[in-house]
Design goal:
zinc ion binding (chains A, B); binds zinc ion; 197 residues; 8 helices; alpha/beta; Dna Topoisomerase Vi A Subunit, Chain: A, domain 2; two-stranded antiparallel ribbon; 5-stranded mixed sheet; homodimer; elongated; Helicase, Ruva Protein, domain 3
């Protein structure tokens, strides 16, 4: 086995570890990439290198960006007094695709879980309470997944908030459903029909 | 939208074009990579860059390697007089995983297809006839997919070969099945039970 075969095997093994890809689809993807070396493989390698070198978590909200503060936190137009709480960045992206919300986000980084020993300190919840005071937040929109852990977390947060209106996405989010699976229209409807929590 | 957001979107779009990944799994994969920047993303970028810079088709058999001749063609131990004909490199890899075959390969690069106007010249078939003379081949093993086009191609090749024994993978390959989907044991059984074509 020459160096290239080893290098290709190494690449297949790395690809196979990505969520959604197994060994077979990783092999297919690598052969596809090798066939399209100039058009796809090199641009993909460059894009990965760029993002790996520049991407970081926003110190304020947990979103991904290149600066200490992400583009949403840095955007003064989004200082609406509304703060949308999501579990992870994929959910923030889903909300943004819905284009229903013009305020800022707070990415928890997961849900409270007694089983996995995840408490408020692990979840950027102290930072949330700090932001609500510092940024003049008047409404907190809970956009957590409609799962047991998501709703436990929503209730925990709601109980610890005072002097702000707390709403939650309501209509359209199916029981057991996860935000990132919903189409944009469903997210829009759920946002518009948000109700007092 | 800052540069990073654009760069991340660009990366998601590139990933979404890989076979087996759609937009949603591409977003999940990119977030997973960003979380594991040092451990996974940078090594993946480097592996892609290495393979993109070095991978090329073997001029002899069509396999992927770093040299003009791949490691199998360059390996004198594999000059057994047996030549295994496969449609593409994924099938060659599947045969190698089966560990049943010790000779060399010839990768056609597809199948004959009247519909898609794929003739013998498009398929490395002239090179095959040249190799059979030059490499002292005594047995050609047809390991083509059991599809209409695969079997048409197998028959075409068998008709144009003289003075060599022509066998084909037989037992264990299901009708309509494709080699790359089979488990290693099935491939071994099919190879051992190969029959006169
Ligand atoms: Zn931010
Ligand atoms: Zn070769």
């Amino acid at each position: 086995m020459d160096d290239s075969t080893r290098e290709i095997e190494h690449l297949v093994n790395l690809m196979a570890k990505l969520p959604g890809l197994g060994p077979r689809s990783a092999r297919r993807a690598v052969l596809h990439l090798i066939k399209k070396r100039a058009l796809v493989m090199t641009p993909l390698a460059n894009a990965l290198q760029n993002v790996a070198a520049t991407a970081r978590e926003c110190v304020n909200c947990g979103n991904i960006g290149t600066q200490d503060r992400c583009d949403i936190c840095a955007n003064e137009k989004r200082a609406t007094g509304q703060l949308c709480i999501v579990e992870d960045v994929a959910d923030l992206w889903a909300m943004e695709r819905g284009q229903a919300f013009g305020g800022r986000y707070h990415v928890l980084g997961g849900t409270l879980s007694a089983l996995d020993a995840v408490g408020p300190e692990e979840l950027r919840i102290p930072k949330l309470l700090e932001r609500i005071r510092a940024e003049g937040i008047t409404e907190v929109v809970l956009a957590l997944n409609v799962t047991v852990d998501g709703q436990t977390t929503a209730h925990y947060i709601a109980e610890h908030l005072t002097h702000v209106s707390v709403t939650s996405l309501a209509q359209g989010v199916p029981i057991g459903g996860e935000l990132d699976y919903l189409d944009d229209g469903t997210i829009q409807a759920a946002f518009k029909a948000r109700k007092q929590f």
